[in-house]
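Quick one:
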Amino acid sequence: MKYATKSVLILAFIAALFSFAKFDHCLNTNFASPDVYTHACYSDLPSLFGARDLIHHTWPYSSATNSVEYPPVTGVVMWVTALPTTSDKTYFLINIALIALLFMGVALLVAKMKPELWYLLPLSPAVIASLYINWDLWAVASAILVVYYFDRRKYDYSALLLGLSIATKFFPIVLLAPIALIFYRRQQLKDLLRYLLISVGAWVIINAPFMIFNRAGWWRFFAMNKDRGVDFGSFWYALNLFGISTKNLNFLSLLLFLIGIAAFAIYFFGLPELPTLATISFIVVAIFTISSKVYSPQYVLWLTPLAILAMRGTRDRSAFWVWQGAELLYHLAIWEYLATYTGSHFGLPAKAYAAATLIRIGATLYFLVRVSTRSTAPQNLEFLISQVEGYA
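Output:
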């Protein structure tokens, strides 16, 4: 099915305008609390503009205790877009203009890679609701390019972009799992080594100046993630709200992720035909978000383009909308739950928020299973049995 570039851009632009309309109330009230929660229009953009002293054009990694909690590319974007202004409203508008352009670019990429289903991206309600919460779309754009170039076997471009993407937001690092498996199955181990060296080299080159000159500020991002306890949106946080305590969270989170990756590897090697990176990236990123210690509402921006690329034509659309509905439910639930922390007259009770979290996770698993289910299930089972017999 063909697509018209103009149609993609127009629909993505309309989606960006709808997202702006959602955030407009908070823009008019200067992002005051509890309005940002009760009207579900909270954004990190103006919040961190003041909190990280970007309002005074402070270098984002100059402080060991108040540096931005993001890798260098995002930090530099935050700083550069702060230079023209000392107004949080103007800062918000500058950043959302760039994010809207990135979103249109991502929509074009998805249309090129999945021309029959590209329209799902700008029509996704959870995407529209989350577009301007954070700077995540900078990393999403480069991550989709990683997939695009890899599936066209332009590995050096893909590897360079992966290094850039990890230096923007750390989540694209999980793409290394399916990339390594694809190279291994193709018996292209030299290509895998070259890919890894280029990706790591690009990441080091970008990070090196920060590591050398602003080491403490640069390290803050990694320290915060290592020391982070159970946090909003995660499976672990929902368990806590239901009275089930979780200790050794770093271990448990990593263990659940590794179990998920092991299950993915069994699925992968059981496929009779080698899949593209586009068709399996969603599975790995979804496993990562489910097992993570935190799930922020804007993470749906990571997942949705990959989810569309993983779909097999129109047969998965109903599952897609079920998942998007659950993401939108969670999007509303997190803000109404946080409203209870800010003296609001109403808000969502803790257990209702926990239920919304589990519904979102359940819907993600449902959609994941739908897009991973192939007519090749017997081959997957035979592969698993052969592996067990081999060890016996």
